[in-house]
Amino acid sequence: MAREISLAVVDGILIGGVYALMAVGLTLIFGVLDIINIAQGVLVILGAYLSYSLFTAAHIDVFVGLLVTVPAMFIVGVAIHWAFIRRLRGTERTSMTLLVTYAVALIIEGVLYKIYGANYDQINASYTNSTVHIFGIYIEYIYIYGFILAIALVVGLYALLYRTRFGRSVRATMQDETAARLVGIDVNRVAALTFGIGVAVTAVGGMVYGATNGGFNPNSGYDLISRLLAIIILGGMGSIGGALVASVFMITLESVVTVWYPVWAVAVFYGALVLVLVIRPTGFFGRKAVRAQ
Amino acid sequence: MRATLPWFSRNAIALSAVALSVGVLAACSSSGSSSSSSSSASTNNSASKTPITIGASLSLTGDFSADGTAFQKGYELWAKDVNAAGGILGRQVKLTILNDASSPNQVVTNYQTLINSDHVDLTFGPYSSLLTGPASAVASRNGYAFIEGAGGAPSVFQTPQNEADHNVFDVSLPVADQLMPLVNYIASLPASQRPKTAAYPMTDDPFADPPEQLAIQKLTALGVKNVYEKIYPEEPSQLTSAAGAVAAKNPDMVILGSTDVPTMQSFMKAFETAHYTPKWFLGESGPDQGQAFISAVGANNADGTMVPNGWYPGYNNPASQKMVSEYVAQYGGSAADINADVAEAYSVGQVMDQAIVATGGLDNAKIISYLHSGVTLTTVQGQVKFDSLGENSAAAAFIFQWQGNGTKFVQVLPAGDKASVAIIQKSPWGSS
């Protein structure tokens, strides 16, 4: 039993890293734009398919392929913001963005079904099944790489937000959009670029998801979005570090519960969310704490 | 001054005209209709050349999309063959397929649309027991026969509507018995050759659980020690943990209550990571999906994986071989690529065809009675004979296995069957 629990904890931490890669973009977009991007799950799958296509058609290594997929997804993100999001104004903006991003999700899903069909695919790079043996547990290299990427991404985004002029603009917009306009910040440009960055980092999550998950198809995004939303709420909406902590915490908890009572694991996952919010309504690193920095 | 007619007299002509018009309209509608939602209405339109409309809801997107699209191909291939042969009773068949997105709520809406708005003559079933149950209730309320090929769980036949109306007919193998050939084979082995330990992870699904629970009972009685038995939701993040827990027990045999390829893939990947290979490995669904399965897990990894089913592409049946050739001609690939769902769907069409011809029309009540009459029908999956519940009592259970480094999908059980070849142990995991 001890071995099973150890394995569950290790699996939880590593899979949590994968979910962090997928959640970071979502929380960044919410933090700056107050948009809950329901299309995030499908965008992860889009990223997975882009990596899959480069790998199978052009034999480009999946990590090298990120040099292509990340900019491509950035463009997709900017295009989505330009076409659908920037026009939304007023008091109903938040609820409208839910509908709009859901529509975007359906469009992307439809296009993916048309191109790739309904059969499940997986990114089978040579190292996706290679393992390292540590303390009696076999760990896949791809999960380790994914976890390292998650940390690197969080650090990178922090550097972007706190060490660059653009980052200052983003934080100013997060704190007070009107005041940001008054000091000369092009809020619309900041919003578009932030949305693009949020979608671009999703390409990384998509690649790792495609390489680690047991197959994906255009529909797979719906399995993800409810969990990603729960993760960013628990981590604190808008908190990038919070997304990483919350991912690891919740997936590990679920993984450990699965050892005993798999059917209850999902209930525990969402029950933990409710419990934490009762104690700390803003999540681990809620928005007030974030904006106070 | 002209004399005026009394009110009644003045309006008698108008009233008569109205009555005559209504009578003419009523006469026209009762003789001209080619569809009816009433089971008692006669719809014998053999003299009419309007197409026979058949409605179905399939999972073209969603969790069951891989199977749903295979079912669509099976239905469409059947319709094409029937129409090429002149149709049924001289009438062409027209399929209307709606997408239920693998949702039990949407499937109900779809059949309500097909029956009450589109007024289809007949209905075919959806994919999966999860959707067939609620869908069949709609068909029952409207008096429709519900012939289906992928709703074999006991819960489908135990709905109040089916118990009252007996309108559900499953052309495929009843799921509860599908692991019995494996159980019987293990029982036939000397105790020293039987697997010593077994693990039974099951998805929370009405299709996956009943056969496995029966197998658990029987195999435990045979001395196969049960080291793991859990039901879990098909959440992607949980599959790896569940598979790791199974691998940690190192059982000789794993019977996986799977419903799709991703579940199989997750478990196989986790087993490979843990450097654990079961000697006996069976998945209830997934390995029967031909190329979809091989593409997902890799041919080398597929080798030795078993799956129960009522059909396989190599089935030595002329009608089945003809269907296989036509499928390959239309969709490409090879026979081994064909998903068993295609044969299930095709068989649904064949049973409906034979029922229409035998009853001489599209009367759903007559079709239901005919199918319950004990008649034996022929399909690409073999013989079909429905019991009082609507299950196919003539279906034979087989176990198939991928062999030849994942290049051949062969029948291995029942062991005494002349088409069966020897079972091989699961090969060690190779690179995909």
Please explain how this structure is put together.
The complex is a heterodimer of chains A (293) and B (432). By secondary structure, chain A is mostly helical. Chain A has 12 helices and 2 strands. Chain A has a domain at 18-221. By secondary structure, chain B is of the alpha/beta class. Chain B folds into 2 domains: 52-175 and 317-384, Rossmann fold; 177-311 and 397-413, 3-Layer(aba) Sandwich (Rossmann fold). Chain B has helices at 7-32, 65-84, 104-117, 129-141, 154-157, 160-165, 180-188, 209-221, 236-249, 261-273, 291-297, 299-302, 318-331, 340-359, 364-371, and strands at 52-58, 93-99, 122-124, 146-148, 168-170, 197-203, 225-232, 253-256, 280-283, 305-309, 377-379, 382-384, 398-403, 408-413. Classes of the chains: A mainly alpha (293), B alpha/beta (432). The interface between A and B is large, with 44 and 47 residues.
Properties at a glance:
heterodimer, A: 293 residues, mainly alpha, two-stranded antiparallel sheet, 12 helices, 76% helix, globular, disordered C terminus, B: 432 residues, alpha/beta, Rossmann fold, seven-stranded mixed beta sheet, five-stranded parallel beta sheet, 15 helices, disordered N terminus
User: Number of DSSP strands of chain B?
Assistant: 14
**What is the CA-CA span between the terminal residues of chain A?**
44 Å
What pattern of helices and strands is seen along the backbone of chain B? HEHEHEHEHHEHEHEHEHEHHEHHHEEEE
Strand content of chain A: under 5%
Structural class of chain B: alpha/beta
CATH architecture of the largest domain in chain B: 3-Layer(aba) Sandwich
Low-pLDDT stretches of chain B are: 1-10, 12-47
What is the topology, as strand order, of the major beta sheet of chain B?
7-6-8-9-10-13-14
Helix content of chain A: over 70%
Helix share, percent of chain B = 40-55%
Radius of gyration of chain A: 19 Å
Shape of chain B: globular
Query: Roughly what fraction of the amino acids of chain B lie in strands?
Result: 15-25%
Q: Describe the largest sheet of chain B.
A: 7 strands, mixed
| Averaged pLDDT of chain A | 87
